[in-house]
Amino acid sequence: MSLGLVVVPEGRAAVIERLGKFRVVLGPGRHFVAPFADAVRARVDLGDQILSAPPRAVETGDGREVLIGFEVVFAVTDPRLATYEISNPAIAIDQLTTTALRQEASLTTAERAVIAPGDLHRTVWTVLHDTTGRWGIVTRELKLEVRPPAAPGTPSTAQEWY
């Protein structure tokens, strides 16, 4: 911030604090703020963001493992909540999705997880949608890749996204 001028690019927002307390969210454009009293707390990207996680081994309820990867498309809808409710949205969404997948997979069999991943998808989607809404974030899409682990020495090329 120079001489009280804050420039916010298109597709972004700036969360402004005055003397350490939330003051306002600024949209795109040039804005004058009080020098030395106001500070930019965060610059938030309002566009769609994609979080991808490679397949990870997850144990199912029958003691077997499946590989589950995911891709989440999300966007910040409320910069104030996204700044103050959660410190790093991408890490939080990754951990939330991984935890929900592991919990749900532990309640099903490996065969069911691979054949009918729609059940996993519905449950994880509900958890994501409900939780991220409180953070000022909307989850637009969730894709899951569920497959059995490849036999040793056998390359696995089958990938299905749901």
From TrEMBL:
<dbReference type="InterPro" id="IPR050710">
    <property type="entry name" value="Band7/mec-2_domain"/>
</dbReference>
<feature type="domain" description="Band 7">
    <location>
        <begin position="3"/>
        <end position="161"/>
    </location>
</feature>
<dbReference type="Pfam" id="PF01145">
    <property type="entry name" value="Band_7"/>
</dbReference>
<protein>
    <submittedName>
        <fullName>SPFH domain-containing protein</fullName>
    </submittedName>
</protein>
<dbReference type="InterPro" id="IPR036013">
    <property type="entry name" value="Band_7/SPFH_dom_sf"/>
</dbReference>
<dbReference type="InterPro" id="IPR001107">
    <property type="entry name" value="Band_7"/>
</dbReference>
